[in-house]
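Q: Could you predict the 3D structure of K Homology domain-containing protein?
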Amino acid sequence: MRTPTIFPEYPIAQIDKCCERLKVKCGARILSYYKMDYSTDFPKLPEVAPAAAKPLGAWSRPAVGTKQIVHSFILAADERANKVKSFPGNTSEEHKKCQAVAAATGTRIELSESKDGALTVVIKGLRSKVEDARARLVRDLQTQASRDLDIPKDHHRKLIGSVASHSWTSMCFSNTVTKFKSFQGKEGAALRQLEADTNCRITIPSRDTPSETIKIVGPREGIEKAVAYIKSVSERESKLATEHIVCPRIFYPFIRGPFNETYDKLTLETGAKINIPPSQANNEVIVITGEKEGVHKATAVIRGIISDKQATTKSVTCTVARAQHRYIIGQQRSGLHTILRETGVSVEVPNEDENSDTITLRGDPSKLGEALALVYQRASSVITQQIPAPTWLHKHIIGPKGSTLQSLIPNRGKVQIDFEDAGTIFLEGAPEEVKAALSVLSAEVARLQTEMSIEKVKVHPSLHRHVIGRGGTLISKIKDETGVQISIPNEQTNSDEIIVEGKKEGVKKAVEEICAIVSKIENEKSRDIIIEQRLHKLIIGAKGENIGKIRDAHPNVVLSFPDVNKKSDVINIRGDKSEVDKVYKQLQSLAKELAESNYQQIVPIFKEFHKHIIGKGGATIKKIREETQTRIDLPEGDSGEERITVTGRKVNVEKAIDQLNKIQNELASIITVEVDIPVKVQARLLGNGRRLISDIEEECGGVHIRFPAEKSDSTKANNHICRLLSSQKMFLTIFKVTIRGPKGDVEKAQKLLTDLAKDKEVNLHEDVVIAKPEFHRFLIGKGGSKINKMRESYDVRVMFPRETDTDKETIHLLGKKEDVVKVKKELQENIRQLNETVESTIDVDTKHHRHFVMRSAAVLREIQEQNGGVVISFPKMGSDSTTVHIKGSKQCVESAKARIEEIVEDIEKQVTIQVEIPSQFHRALLVNRGQKIQDLQSKHGVLIRFPERRFESAEDADSHAADMVTISGRDTKCDAAKQELLLMVPVSKIINVPIDMHRSLIGRGGETVRKLMQDCDVNISIPKNNESDEITVTGQSENVEDALKKIREKIAEFEALAEDRKLRSFQLVIDVPAEYHTRVIGPKGATVNALRAKHDVQISLPRGEERSDQITIQGYEAAARACAAEIDDMIEEIRSMFTQEVSIDAGFHPRMIGTRGKNLKKLMEDYGVEIRFPRDAADPNLVIIAGKSEDAVYDCIDHLRAEEEEYLVDHVDRNQYISTRVQEPPKVNKPVQISNAPWQLDIGSSEHFPDMGAAAPSHVVGGAWGSARRW
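A: Sure. Here are the predicted structure tokens for K Homology domain-containing protein:
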């Protein structure tokens, strides 16, 4: 089927007009489709001869129009203002003016003067610029004339505004068309436009002068144009007239006629404009304007109508209910116009703001009766009815896309049905149709109210996301299980009402689930606690042991620790309110305890005394730790750090520091001396990161030199005093510098500091020397011999880089200038010698080569690093050569050579001994990938080998060989390693633990027992399936005893917890009537939660549909009985209250409650009462009011009655008048049927498609394979 083509030259509007014309022709019988004839409804367009198209070449381009134009005009000889001709080499006045105009307008102007004296002016440029230039040239070059014109005074105002009041005016003068464009603006703007268009100056006398003469000055051509235009305006104004007719408003309908027919006819015939005031206006003057003849004619007709109606018109009144007035008026007052047309009687209906039911009829007395009958007929033709139906039922009655409503009311097109937001269904239409629809809809509303219900659950907006669940899973689950619709308000509305609607059983179940979720969430609480981040790790414990205990004790609490990189001290606690507070207090006390027990202080102890502080096997430091309950951390042995860190409680830390200092003082004569150093000198001594002081400490045997804290308050004050004294040339401010160490070293350091401070203005010279870090040990010499010799010879301090310095190559020199220069020269000479490369050889037996190159040549790399990066080359494996080549600086090569000889000597003097250790203990010694054995090897420089495991499984293997452990190394070191290895052999002991405590000892996932094994470094074996109460502990003797002690402590702790649980399991059951349970719970569970927190008990109330009066209280017996007594007192207080049940209209309940219960709370506070709305009550209007005072209750009831009465009165007044409801007829899209269209022609018809002429047959000669085919 072909789709008809709609051509662009025939718009849809034309098709609609054709359809309307066809509709009129058909009359009352309307066709189901529009019939159209293509030949008449779409006439053929006039033929236009095609424009000859200019062929475009291969490289041709379409022409592009220019924006510039060329304009020329001629000034006659007698019109020229300056007739002086120009001579060669002389420029005339006209040329000067043209040049000025061309420069001002940006155009090109050419002048040409003919023999008769005429001047031709050619202007080229943009259109706007050309017009501007022409106007200027006419004013400058053309002669000016003057003319006076007499125009009536009353036409002057129209002349000034005429250009603004007309779109454009065309006038022809000398074959030139001038258009005066519309110009809007202030008074006089139109006159200025006329002056600009004619190049004239027009002077109009002012309003106060009696003169009527208008003066025009300018070129003759412009004067003629201006005069002609002014005369045309004056003539047009002389033909116009205005009439005013005083007419009573009651005759306006007769002048207008039915549907404004009389008014339209009169306007069309006379061409006058008739302004009739609206009927509501107080104005009774009709204004007629236009041509004089038409105005006079229209005035006569209107005056005749008024005089006729004044003589014949009578009036009659009738009373019709205001609700029916709109049916009399009709759509767009069509009812009143219809009565006026049929009877000639006008009907006046009072306005809506007039409280009147009286309708007035005016007209011929003989027609008043007929008109009155039509009024009553229209008033009773339509009735209205209202059905009360809650708003939430409307969508169920309407159904999807109105399907349910259409099935209930098949003839819905005859009845207008509106669903009001106020909770009513409005019916309007014929009485029979309205009654039928009323009965059907009333029955449907009653059925839906019986089967369905709606509930509004108050939930705070912040909890909506918890009800919805992640991705809506929770709310979707509730919907699927209950089959209800749940509407959660948008976040932007900030509403706290969740609406649940559907079947009654489903709604009830859904509300209970939502309330349960909300109750659980409301009982949660989030709280932050600030604890120093350094304590977080201690709170968490090893592998989360400590925090695991807190979580086990409070499973409903979630603890969130900040990320280590965030440097935050905030720990978040979220969960049950009571448990959150308990955890908060627990963490607070734990943090306080940890802060007190982790006080930290650093004490300097000379490096040579560290081994004495550790003691044999760590006995001394272990004893100090146990006695002071502190943690003592010593620096690593290979580091140069001397400070020892002590952590614990402040008192214990100070006690531990005293013991450490006591050990140091006993071992050496440690003294403390204070030296007075001026402030100015101190600043110089502390420069360059305390380098000079550190160097003095090292030189003097590691004494400790301490200056006052640089940023303390005392220092700031002293610095301020120092500046004041310096301004007065006084340098007496001094600081106490403390020197602590052995007596001889302290005296040496004191002398050095004193010598440096003797002269406050000493001019010390500083310089640096650059040397590779591997050369520093050679520059210092063995034991510092070379550098000490240099210091003795010269008064210069040589300071090498420290381990903490980033620059490892710079050596600082400080001293007198001449000495610093000599030392620098000597050091540079030594560095030059070290940079000279030499090569040497050493013989090493091939059997020792493997020791140097095994483990990725670890020994060889260590020798290279210690000796300035020398290159050491061993022979290839498998060769018989014993020569080892060493290449590098001379001193480094000699040092490396000596080290290799020392290692070879140790290997040759190596011995091997065997230690018998039962094979079952080998695995325990090699735990953690043999870490203990590796530490023992590093400590004594020996090699320990265990027998291979294959011996253990061989049946014929010697059991004695499987127990032998081999130790290789120097003879003296092997014995020490043997003794320590035997001490590491584990022992086993048994402890009896009750079977019911095994589970607690193991912990969650074995966490507790694993932690115990890690802390004590033992193995704990617990019998499976509770076969025995014997637990075996295996490990080193000291560790086993420590583990047994902790297990006994655990047993005592478990017994105490069991006794506490037994005491807390006391239950007390009390009877409380179910109607008081909500009072015990309180708003959002506030009351019951307060009772739980106050008495530390658990209170269980009946849930869901369970109907019981019993409340169970569990906890300590004394607390449970105290809680029960408090609940009894609460119930007695409630029972003593005076209660009244009143019936208050349910529609007033929302107003009484107010937004979020604001009005209800204020009402209860004002009268001291409680107001409840029973949910399950049969009467929805029931309200319960209770209070301690009977008068207060009755006062509250009286107040509510008055408010209810005021609400009902307002409700009736508001619904008394209903706005006009107009039902537009549905639009029906009817198909269009077109005949005689081009696409409907017969292709095979010779009439429609004639031949274009016979074609001559072509003769084609085929080849060997026949004629060619062309497709």
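Q: Anything worth pointing out?
A: The CA atoms of residues 126 and 485 lie 73 Å apart.
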